[in-house]
Amino acid sequence: MQNFDTIIIGGGAAGLMAAGQSAELGNKVLVLERMNRPGRKLSITGKGRCNITNTAPLAEFINQVQPNGRFLRSSFSNFFSNEVIEFFNRIGVKTVVERGGRVFPESGKAVEVVKQMTKWCHDKGVTVKSDCRVNNLIIENGVIVGVKATIDKKQTVSYNAKKIILATGGVSYPATGSTGDGYKLAESAGHKINAVWPSLVPLETEGYVAKRLSGLELRNISGTVWIDGKKAGEDFGEMSFMDFGISGPIILSLSRLIVPVIKENKEVIFSIDLKAALDDKKLDNRLIRDLNDKGKETFYNILGGLLPKILIPICIEQTKIDANKIGHQITGNERKELKKWLKNFSFKVTDHRPWEEAIITCGGINTNEVNQKTMESKLVKGLYFAGEVLDLDAPTGGYNLQIAFSTAWTAAQNY
């Protein structure tokens, strides 16, 4: 049986950060990674560009995290976005800040982040065992003492350590190794696992309208979620249509609200305000002006100044206004119907896409059972947690990787 000071279970974003930081403190560190190489999920995150953090202020950042952002106050206070940016610059990854405070590697390549983090760990003396699945935590009298694992699906091995950091991720993108192993291990140690579900995931919609609009991207629109007729949430930004339904930044962010209730047979409606910059009165004035100025043109042609071409037939079908009717002939009621449609273009959401398409996992290890200042288990001495395995999640924009890095840094620093 081999002895280490610290064993990290999982070689993703949190695992690599925890490993390197722990090694920098002079510890003998082992990373046990289920896949054939570390950083598989990290290498595809952010559409392959890796949005490593966000420059939002601390209070705003905490507000973005669900279900209990305050749990992260201590971790963020010690290792936040500035420290993450400095860290990556130090290991050879230059960064740039883009719209919305999103921070990316200057190269725009997530694989560079994985390469440099892996090199950093190697340079600090971290041992990485790939194709290694941890089967059991070894706990004696409430204290962690090691793990049992299987290498290459055949050889059973045991490793001793006085500290174990569980950084296995969630269930999203299972092909990269996130298959929920961490939940089983934590549960075996007595921890409560809050219900998990896919989040930051595209949504499927009823009917064929989305399929007809496939490929269309909308910007500067407002989206609202209605659950059983009650407003549940809204967001502003970009979205896109797919063969199966809807996706894009605001859809992914709002999916956190939608996914849990779909299985409860509640009616979920997603409505789009295509003219979010105009209130009802301003939009009505705009329509009156357009109909007057283009009074001799057909309704179809007038819509060309209001909508993307692919959306015009849908508008005509749903408002039931004759496409060949000229502007001067459009009645007041028809104008109001058009205004209503522009402010409330709606879809019934029927399902979400599978785990393979979810960016993150909602739910996980209950943070009430974790020391927020150290990330150590309150139930088992020497057992720590980092990253997505915890019941903490946030919208797109670099927030989730910051959670991973901050919790990993905190877990590594404390003994």
What this model shows, in words?
Helices cover 31% and strands 27% of the residues. With 415 residues, it is α+β, with helices and mostly antiparallel strands. It folds into two domains: 2-195 and 362-413, FAD/NAD(P)-binding domain, CATH 3.50.50.60; 202-352, no CATH class. The strands form four sheets. Strands 1, 2, 6, 7, 8, 9 and 18 form a seven-stranded mixed β-sheet that branches. Strands 11-14-13-12-15-16 form a six-stranded antiparallel β-barrel. Strand 1, helix 1 and strand 2 form a beta-alpha-beta unit. Helix 1 (13-24) packs parallel to helix 5 (110-123), helix 1 packs parallel to helix 13 (399-413) and helix 9 crosses helix 12. It is elongated.
Keywords:
415 residues; alpha+beta; 7-stranded mixed beta sheet; 18 strands; elongated
Straight-line N-to-C gap:
22 Å
In which range does the helix fraction lie?
A: 25-40%
- The gross shape turns out to be elongated
The CATH architecture of the largest domain can be named as: 3-Layer(bba) Sandwich
Mean pLDDT: 96
Short description:
The chain is an alpha+beta fold and 415 residues long. It contains 13 helices and 18 strands.
Give the arrangement of secondary structure elements.
Blueprint: E1 2-9, H1 13-24, E2 29-32, E3 53-54, H2 58-64, H3 73-78, H4 81-90, E4 95-98, E5 102-105, H5 110-123, E6 127-129, E7 132-140, E8 143-151, E9 155-166, H6 181-188, E10 193-199, E11 203-205, H7 209-212, E12 217-227, E13 230-241, E14 245-247, H8 249-262, E15 268-273, H9 280-293, H10 299-303, H11 312-319, H12 332-343, E16 345-352, E17 360-365, E18 383-385, H13 399-413
Parallel strand pairs: 1-2, 1-9, 2-6, 9-18
Antiparallel strand pairs: 3-5, 4-5, 7-8, 8-9, 10-17, 11-14, 11-16, 12-13, 12-15, 13-14, 15-16
Helix pairs in contact: 1-5, 1-13, 9-12
